[in-house]
Amino acid sequence: MKALVKKFPKEGLWLEEVEIPVIGEKDVLVKMKKTAICGTDVHIYNWDKWSQETIPVPMTIGHEFVGEVVEVGSLVRNFKVGDLVSGEGHIVCGVCRNCLAGKRYLCKDTIGIGVNRTGIFAEYASIPETNVWMCDKSISEDALCILDPLGNAVHTALSFDLAGEDVLITGAGPIGIMAAAVAKHVGARHVVITDINDYRLKLAKELGPIITVNTKKEKLADVMKALGMTEGFDVGLEMSGNGDALNEMINNMVHGGKIAMLGIQAPDTQIDWNKIVFSGLFIKGIYGREMFETWYKMTAMLQSGLDISKVITHKMHYTKFEEGFQIMKSGQSGKVILEWD
Ligand code: NAD
Ligand code: ZN
């Protein structure tokens, strides 16, 4: 079968002929329909410091997918040939304190599909049954193939009650944009999203009545004033991974406001800790998706009218993956989908 492999420890990705995986008794073999490129895949493509320290070479990468079950292991109970599935990319240990408490997203020994073990940018992939998600066939396959990043958005956005609240999202990448749509869907009042990239802010506007701010050109304070907001945002969702954006958020929260942080900050990011103290802010870190509460909630929201289809800006056959990665790198895209049918 064909697979996109990190074959050499240098920039790039290679389309290779590899063996179809042999599944274990608790695994499901999935024939890929669609996969999506994540920022993580771009890091691996670029072979940055993190990738060099993390990714075993050679390895097939990728973790966002929708496909069809074509074989199940002898102990698999909940899936059968023909099921439409996606999957949770974090494989957990099952025996640590949090796993035993049912809080699998807090596992101390998480392994990432397409990061620490073979990924899904391939015609077929073997996934443990514990990580397979049964898809509702009435939801579009495009949406189903981005459940993983939508799950990041949903996990972060639903960390705090948003109904009737004013929400600030920093970073209008695909996840920030989807979080904005989720915040609107669950009844937030003003949803303001910041970025420094006009393409992305324009894309955010296509997902609903979302207020966009290019912080290189406009002051957040002026936008808040125009909206009649006098005390600050109730909830902040940090989705840029940028220190300036994080500080801007901290500076514009209501006293007692709540911040959920998904964006991965540089190790030397500085913040004024006393703003957290004197404003009585709450800060929560977010990793991955809640297994599987987030998956239930996002499915329910897609079934009840949440529309994130416009965040997908490019679709192409997997053989055109080079083009897909270059588009992702340009910043002039939302989600980029590789098709395997
Ligand atoms: P992305 O890189 O596509 O989007 C980040 C956006 O932030 C970009 O559009 C960028 O222009 C914008 N930005 C940069 N500087 C800014 C500033 N000063 N103010 C406002 N915006 C600014 O990333 P994504 O795929 O949408 O993911 C969002 C973030 O979440 C990334 O940092 C990613 O690494 C992180 N992430 C974390 C997890 C987790 O489990 N914690 C999972 C997935 C992604
Ligand atoms: Zn664990």
From TrEMBL:
Catalyzes the NAD(+)-dependent oxidation of L-threonine to 2-amino-3-ketobutyrate. The active site is at residues 40, 43. It comes from Fusibacter ferrireducens. It catalyses: L-threonine + NAD(+) = (2S)-2-amino-3-oxobutanoate + NADH + H(+). Pfam families: ADH_N, ADH_zinc_N. The keyword Transport does not apply. This is L-threonine 3-dehydrogenase. Residues 174-303 form the Alcohol dehydrogenase-like C-terminal domain. The record marks 148 as: Important for catalytic activity for the proton relay mechanism but does not participate directly in the coordination of zinc atom. The keyword Metal-binding applies. Keywords: Cytoplasm, Metal-binding, NAD, Oxidoreductase, Zinc. It is found in: Cytoplasm. The lineage of its organism: Bacteria, Bacillati, Bacillota, Clostridia, Eubacteriales.
